[in-house]
């Protein structure tokens, strides 16, 4: 970056709010995604909407890219710098501006940590359901940018189901406000839903309005162990067929169970093929009825053992089995590549079995876990990025996993986003007209391509599109 441009940035936000030492640039050269890294030219900490607006205007004039970033927990490379870019660090915009109990809504800044918002609203008897696995560190702005899911997605939905309004700075520096506290509002295009999941490519969020709901009165947590994957998958389908929609329905395979037990020492059996974690919540009478139905179905489908939590502390212990999955697997090898494939629920067992077959075909160590109720799995390969031969096998493995996912009517990402990591897959698997429409929206709002340049797709049209068949 031209030193004069960097000096102009310092004039806008103040020198103390620009980090440009080699050490600072290295710290912000990566996020939660393996195999991707690039140093930014600087890390910029804006103090006001005016600062962001002026930085956007300067980026258009001087042709550098602006990469919005929260806590950097993303798993698709969405906040990784590109060549000639700055990081726009938003994690210090961390105020809960308002909790409106009358309208069941909350205004927050984008840097608010998800778990802190949940704790704050629960103190008032309210509930914000989206709960990504990184909820203790990830930010609301990042959740909205990636349209994050979580363990409670089956019953309560994902981030987009709770966003009522957004204020953001456009790539040309203008402030736009969309949505509000009206429960019904169909005036014009739904710009709010357009930018949810846009991965920082269409605007920089400065304030977000979220819907809240009453906090469930009680809950009941169950943990079931199976000797056959098919029995676990059949349990998922049959529970839903009984018109029971648990708030949580999670799956762990044998490799993941072993790693969790080695890490957390929860007393899990390590000779089973699958584990299901289920939770129902709501009115006490409904919870008791649904828990009884789930336990009956689990036992009918040959669950070796079903544990039912009797206290909140015991429930938290059972849920640790799922929340510790990623960190437990990551202990085994230097590089952990966690991906995100989603299929219709009816095809989940096929995807799980096929993924296991492919890991054996390519001789890879893999654990699989995820949101069984959503059909959303996280095949996780344990490898070493210094082993180039094994990385080639990893690439072939995920290529076939996603080919199989698409054949089963699925999608290449259910909650992690496209970013850099899945940019190639998006270009291969999406219809050309849909890809062209995305490009047109991006070019219309950001003609100079300054905001999160190079993420999701390339602007220059290529011979891309959905594969035949």
Automatic annotation (TrEMBL):
Oxidoreductase as UniProt keyword: yes
Keyword Flavoprotein: yes
Entry-linked Pfam families: FAD-oxidase_C, FAD_binding_4
Cofactors named for this entry: FAD
Top-level taxon in the UniProt lineage: Bacteria
Gene3D superfamilies: 3.30.465.10, 3.30.70.2740, Vanillyl-alcohol Oxidase, Chain A, domain 4
Domain called FAD-binding PCMH-type: residue spans: 36-215
Gene Ontology terms, MF aspect: FAD binding; oxidoreductase activity
Entry keywords, A to Z: FAD, Flavoprotein, Oxidoreductase
Coiled coil: none
Family: Belongs to the FAD-binding oxidoreductase/transferase type 4 family.
The protein's name: FAD-binding protein
Source organism (scientific name): Caldithrix abyssi
